């Protein structure tokens, strides 16, 4: 059975998921988490634009050598996956319009962090940076070192008013070793280890 790496950005929720496994058993593998409150990412149109700006089909064919599938949800295929979901298509013109409508600040630079050291991740980060630049979004990608949990999963001091206490805008990080319900629980707004509350 063909292994797949399912790729998506669920921007209305503020998450990006990369899932691995077979088409029938793919499990959540990595999430890009947004620190939205108090930043331009708080506007859903900005998050949508960031997704429309990325050509996932080309990434699947080039970076992942065709051994991937674009996903439509953070949820693995199976009983938890809602029916009828459609993937974001590559549409840089729509991305530009959404950014214009959201009054994207041209001087803002997204701070994107990751911690994988493999060349495939470095290539993926570079490609995403280029796609975003093509629609007018500046971004800086940096590899985290040290205590990753302390940098990635920082609950806000004020869980009602926030803002998030993390020191980045977007993180490419893994949650592969947990079951689907644990994945949901970690991202649920009242979870003590959810670094994005309040929503």
Radius of gyration: 16 Å
Highest CATH level, the class: Alpha Beta
Largest sheet: 7 strands, mixed
Order of helices and strands: EEEHHEHEHEHEH
Kindly report the oligomeric state of this protein. single chain
Please tell me the total number of domains.
1
Give the CATH architecture.
Answer: Roll
Could you tell me the CATH topology label.
Dipeptide-binding Protein, domain 3
**Cα distance spanning the termini:** 39 Å
- What is the strand tally? 7
**Which shape, going by the Cα principal axes?**
globular
Q: Which regions are unreliable across 5 or more consecutive residues at pLDDT < 50?
A: 1-34
Give the strand order of the largest sheet, numbering strands 1, 2, ... along the chain. Answer: 4-1-2-3-7-5-6
| Alpha-beta classification | alpha/beta
Round the mean pLDDT to the nearest integer and report it: 71
Strand fraction: 15-25%
What keyword list fits this structure?
Dipeptide-binding Protein, domain 3, alpha/beta, 199 residues, seven-stranded mixed sheet, 6 helices, 7 strands, single chain
Task: Tell me what you see in this structure.
This protein has 6 helices and 7 strands; from the N terminus they run E-E-E-H-H-E-H-E-H-E-H-E-H. The protein is of the alpha/beta class. It has one domain: Dipeptide-binding Protein, domain 3 (Roll). The chain has a 7-stranded mixed β-sheet, covered by helices on one side. Strand 1 and strand 2 form a beta hairpin. Helix 1 packs antiparallel against helix 3. The longest helix has 16 residues. The N terminus is likely disordered.
